Amino acid sequence: MAQRSKLRWVILALPLLAFIWLTLFLLRGLFSDPTELSSALVGKPVPQFTVPDIYDTSKMHTEAVLQGRPMLLNVWATWCPTCRAEHEYLNKLAAEGVYIVGLNYKDDSRAKAVNWLNTLGDPYQLNLFDERGMVALDFGVYGAPETFLINSAGEVVYRHVGDVNDRVWNTILGPQYDELMQSYQGAGAKQ
Question: Does the global pTM surpass 0.85?
Answer without folding.
Answer: no
